[in-house]
Amino acid sequence: MSKQNALLEIDNLHTGFNIDGDFHHAIKGVSFDVKPKEVVCVVGESGCGKSVMSLSIMQLLPKHNGKIDKGEIRFNGQNLAELSEKQMNGIRGKDISMIFQEPMTALNPVLTIGFQIDEVLLNHSKTSKEQVRKKSIQLLKDVGISRSEQIVHEYPHQLSGGMRQRVMIAMAIACEPALLIADEPTTALDVTVQAQILELIKKIQDDKGMAVMLITHDLGVVAEMADRVVVMYAGQVVEQSDVDRIFHDPKHPYTQALLGSIPKMDEKADELNTIKGIVPTLTKMPKQGCRFVDRCPAAMPECKQIDPQLAETDKGHTVRCLLYKESQPGEKAEVRT
Ligand SMILES: Nc1ncnc2c1ncn2[C@@H]1O[C@H](COP(=O)(O)OP(=O)(O)OP(=O)(O)O)[C@@H](O)[C@H]1O
After folding, report:
1. Which residues of the chain form beta strands (DSSP E)?
2. Is 210 within 8 Å of 179 (Cβ atoms)?
3. β 66-75/8-19 pair status
4. Where's the ABC transporter domain (predicted)?
């Protein structure tokens, strides 16, 4: 059933891959939503399932071994998993757009920048080629590319990484989508360009009233951009709240550890805190109990046996950890003593 006000609703999503004849879940029971005009940051270390989730939303999982086997992804109330490829093509780029970490892999190296932006516009409208080219040039100007009349005739390799990411953003916003999914959009860029690209995404989000789902492992980016934060660990949501509470009152030991690993100004390089261990791979995922148990400083014996469920510790703040007693719907979770 569709919730009021949600643009995107991910409901009990299970996505997995066939690996050596067995099916392993990379996403196991993920639920959260994105409201119109909201910036939701999905955060977690490498291997937590952030990209698999965005590929699930876009219905772009590798066909040979990946599939959604349970749950729903509703966009404006419509379950995307039930749509045909043709229907999904009508939504991708028009209603939901995506920008990737490395624009070079998303841009076609043998086609000019102008041709590639024109294509997006032509796919979703019946305007003339001349009008489309005018719009492409304007879009490049909107994303801060001043020589846009020349750039339309150039190829991706002739541009810097930052410029290529601006081109990707121009393509993504060409049809004014209601939702932009940005998967680590600044990771491949140097720090100054990162800041400019984030500022640009924020400005466009404000100007166009677009919702953004921003995937990142960088909590600095989260602090800068997010209204709400979804913390993922090993294919599950472990904590979800508004950005202030995530930074000032983190509940889950994993969120606390992520925050603790942000370098501080007065810290020496050899004192940097890192989270010991790594995210388990799909074939090594614990069969029961908490998936963070082996790395958790607060682990208790029962954490290996009991699967923690999401508990609401405060309105709109949910945590998946046995430290917080499960609550009944509408009741606040208690901290276990
Ligand atoms: N095509 C695939 N076949 C098998 N396993 C896969 C495939 N794609 C992803 N996985 C596995 O799914 C898990 C989640 O991967 P995912 O790429 O979503 O992580 P992530 O959080 O986005 O990490 P990163 O920030 O490094 O991209 C990982 O264990 C990964 O190895």
Report:
1. 8-19, 22-34, 39-43, 66-75, 78-79, 96-99, 179-183, 211-216, 228-233, 236-242, 310-314, 317-320
2. yes
3. antiparallel
4. 8-259
Q: How far is the CA of 315 from the centre of ligand 1 (A)?
A: 31
Cα 52 to averaged position of ligand 1 atoms, centre (Å): 6
Helix (H) or strand (E) holding 164: helix 161-173
Identify whether the C-beta of residue 326 lies closer than 8 Å to the C-beta of residue 335: no
> In CATH terms, is domain 8-95+225-263+272-327 a member of 3.40.190.10?
no
> What is the C-alpha separation between 121 and 236, in angstroms, rounded?
36
What's the ipTM? 0.96
Nearest-CA residue for ligand 1 atom 25 is: 46
Q: Which residue has the tokens 């370098």?
A: 263
This model's pTM is above 0.95:
no
The whole-number pLDDT of residue 282 equals: 95
Atom 5, ligand 1: residue with shortest CA distance = 17
- Cα separation, 36 vs 77, in Å, equals 13
CA of 231 to the centre of ligand 1 (A): 16
Q: Provide the CB-side half-sphere exposure for 334 (13 A, CA).
A: 3
Low-confidence ranges of the chain (pLDDT < 70): 1-4, 263-273, 326-337
* Candidate of 15, 52, 283 to mutate for ligand 1, largest count of ligand atoms within 8 Å of Cβ: 52
The pLDDT of residue 127: 85
